[in-house]
């Protein structure tokens, strides 16, 4: 009978994790949908995502820090809401696939002959340049330059560029409104002690009126994992409080997390540890922990749990790096790890980072590893 009970508990536990995996996939599909337009700066993409996450926090029963799930802030950003047309040698190029415009570029309408600078660079005018690239990756700029640079995928365009016809619209927004989305599950014993899970929900948005960047691995996967953990902890409150923060403005320079650390909704010394999740949708080649060498005891604890239960095939140690939202917390003295997985699809900051190609290889194991690590931190 005892053996039967143990088998039942094990089956029920595994089924819960499977259900969480289904929930995670659902969240990723929603956040990467056309409706959210890359969770960026045009078509209200980021605002819609913040509303959705706030509603999900409420549905899960998370408590607000200050009466609201949203923490508003603003920053400047260069956007491309309208025309996005490039013809090279009379051939119309496809935005995102055949070309991208540099994120800091100004709008431009011109038809110009191109002068070869070298094998990869071509000049159309003092303020127009064409660059041939093997891979097109986009980003976010908080200012506008006095030039326009167009990157062309040379795998899709094998001719020598001689003439270009361009019509690109940009719009500089001096005070783009964004929101961090914050909530927590109250601890059952040490309510003033808190563990924090973070992930940025913003991505690159859209380039023109017809092309957007889904951002499945970067970082819908991290947000979906965060929500799955929130769902778990809402059902299973811990002795410590567990907080959840979805940051905006990460792609524009870690702006949401910087704002939070400068305007904290809780006293930062209450945070006993923070785990930041970014790019966690793969795992075939293991995972990496940024700040592992900064907090060796915590990293040893994480490895001990992983080795005992054989969750992740390999955990790589990395030192301090200002490459995601953990950074400004550690600068303020908050111990933090930034976790990202490796292997699988190589899509990154491009239109091919889609949910249908995201394997979530190590989702269940990462989920259990984080729960086990948090449990040890509370002992």
Automatic annotation (TrEMBL):
<protein>
    <submittedName>
        <fullName>M28 family peptidase</fullName>
    </submittedName>
</protein>
<dbReference type="InterPro" id="IPR045175">
    <property type="entry name" value="M28_fam"/>
</dbReference>
<dbReference type="Pfam" id="PF04389">
    <property type="entry name" value="Peptidase_M28"/>
</dbReference>
<dbReference type="InterPro" id="IPR007484">
    <property type="entry name" value="Peptidase_M28"/>
</dbReference>
<feature type="domain" description="Peptidase M28">
    <location>
        <begin position="180"/>
        <end position="370"/>
    </location>
</feature>
<keyword id="KW-0732">Signal</keyword>
<feature type="signal peptide">
    <location>
        <begin position="1"/>
        <end position="18"/>
    </location>
</feature>
């Amino acid at each position: 009978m005892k053996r039967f009970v143990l088998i039942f508990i094990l089956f029920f536990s595994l089924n819960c994790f499977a259900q969480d995996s289904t929930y995670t996939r659902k969240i990723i599909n929603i956040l990467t949908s056309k409706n959210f337009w890359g969770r960026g700066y045009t078509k209200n993409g980021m605002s819609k995502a913040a509303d959705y996450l706030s509603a999900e926090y409420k549905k899960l029963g998370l408590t607000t820090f200050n009466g609201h799930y949203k923490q508003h802030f603003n920053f400047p950003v260069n956007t491309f809401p309208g025309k996005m047309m490039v013809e090279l040698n009379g051939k119309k190029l496809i935005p995102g696939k055949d070309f991208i415009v540099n994120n800091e570029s100004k709008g431009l309408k011109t038809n110009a002959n191109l002068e070869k600078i070298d094998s990869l660079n071509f000049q159309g005018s003092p303020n127009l340049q064409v660059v041939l690239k093997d891979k097109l990756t986009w980003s976010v700029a908080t200012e506008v330059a006095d030039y326009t640079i167009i990157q062309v995928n040379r795998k899709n365009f094998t001719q020598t560029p001689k003439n270009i016809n361009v019509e690109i619209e940009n719009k500089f927004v001096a005070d783009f409104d964004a929101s961090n989305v914050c909530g927590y599950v109250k601890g059952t014993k040490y309510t003033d002690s808190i563990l924090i899970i973070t992930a940025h929900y913003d991505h690159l948005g859209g380039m023109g009126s017809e092309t957007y960047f889904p951002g499945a691995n970067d970082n819908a996967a991290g947000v979906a994992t965060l929500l799955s953990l929130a769902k778990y902890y809402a059902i299973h409150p811990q002795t410590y409080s567990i907080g959840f923060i979805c940051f905006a403005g990460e792609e524009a320079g870690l702006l949401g997390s910087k704002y939070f650390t400068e305007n904290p909704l809780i006293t930062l010394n209450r945070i006993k540890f923070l785990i930041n999740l970014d790019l966690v949708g793969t795992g075939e080649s293991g995972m990496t922990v940024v700040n592992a060498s900064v907090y060796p005891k915590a990293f040893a604890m994480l490895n001990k749990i992983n080795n005992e239960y054989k969750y992740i095939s390999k955990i790589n140690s990395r030192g301090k790096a200002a490459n995601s939202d953990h950074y400004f917390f550690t600068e303020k003295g908050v111990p933090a790890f930034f976790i990202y997985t490796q292997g699988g699809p190589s899509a990154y900051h491009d239109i091919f980072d889609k949910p249908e190609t995201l394997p979530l290889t190590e989702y269940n194991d990462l989920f259990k590893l984080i729960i086990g690590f948090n449990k040890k931190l509370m002992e």
